[in-house]
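Incident log, support desk, overnight shift.

02:14 A customer reports that sequence design results differ from what the structure should imply. Their input is reproduced verbatim below. On-call engineer (initials T.W.) acknowledged and began investigating.
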């Protein structure tokens, strides 16, 4: 499998263009921060629970049943045990690599997702700073529902802080309206999240996301811009890792669009682009 290595003095990133251009490895000061398999082909056999992968043209779940959007019909197969269509279409497809060796792209759609689209990932490393730009471009002739995100699995033990005022308590059959954070949903201070969370935070503040790995003496500050407006967190007992997913919309974004609910997928005009920028600054602690 092809590997793209992007390195700085303190950071090493390995991308796999043949497995959704996902981050196979993110190493800071010699320590792996992501859940990384020994065999890169594991990403193709088990695509949802390793590394960090791009989600498009939607993030999280949508219904795996025919849904009418304008004059088009979305009819997606289920790809997850709960019967939903989850995390988009490009998380494990082969992507092409631009001449700069830091940009990957993939064209998809015109199937169960009736619109044509292109997704682009560009990764840069500058000493202790990782920059990731995610782009979703509508390549069809009609407006397209659009969602975008990135889904990293961070190794544990991990402390997390998310500057957010509201949360959707569950990502499965998520409520129409977010609630004020409280109890296990209040992650505004650096803490180890409770187990079995599967929720999404919104009303993000300027503090972004903070991560810390006390056992290896590494911390990271994540700054979000562009269409990044939601952060999903999953803390399953297995695998022994924590997902912190930057997204442009709330769970079940297509339902929200059709029902006029908050946090819906955007309607992206032909030729227009949806962009998320993530900056991850690592440090020793």
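02:41 Re-run completed on a clean worker. Output:
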């Amino acid at each position: 499998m092809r590997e793209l290595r992007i390195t700085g003095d303190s950071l090493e990133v390995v991308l796999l263009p043949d497995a959704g251009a996902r981050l196979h490895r993110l190493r800071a000061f010699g320590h792996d921060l992501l859940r990384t398999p020994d065999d890169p082909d594991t990403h193709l056999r088990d695509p949802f629970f390793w590394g960090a992968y791009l989600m498009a043209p939607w993030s999280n779940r949508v219904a795996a049943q025919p849904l009418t959007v304008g004059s088009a019909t979305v009819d997606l197969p289920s790809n997850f045990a709960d019967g939903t269509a989850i995390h988009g279409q490009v998380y494990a497809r082969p992507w092409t690599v631009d001449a700069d060796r830091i940009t990957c792209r993939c064209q998809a759609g015109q199937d169960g997702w009736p619109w044509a689209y292109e997704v682009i990932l560009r990764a840069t490393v500058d000493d202790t700073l990782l920059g990731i730009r995610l782009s979703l471009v509508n390549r069809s002739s009609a407006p397209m529902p659009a969602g975008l995100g990135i889904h990293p699995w961070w190794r544990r033990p991990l402390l997390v802080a998310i500057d957010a005022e509201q949360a959707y308590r569950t990502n499965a059959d998520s409520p129409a309206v977010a609630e004020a954070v409280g109890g296990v949903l209040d992650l505004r201070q650096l803490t180890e999240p409770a187990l079995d969370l599967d929720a999404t935070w919104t009303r993000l503040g300027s503090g972004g996301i903070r991560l810390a790995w006390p056992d290896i003496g590494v911390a990271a500050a994540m700054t979000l811009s562009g269409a990044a407006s939601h952060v999903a967190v999953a803390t399953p007992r297995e695998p022994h890792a924590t997902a912190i997913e930057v997204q442009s919309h709330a769970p079940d974004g297509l339902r929200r669009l059709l029902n006029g609910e908050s946090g819906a997928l955007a309607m992206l005009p032909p030729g227009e682009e949806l962009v998320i920028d993530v900056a991850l600054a690592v440090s020793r602690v």
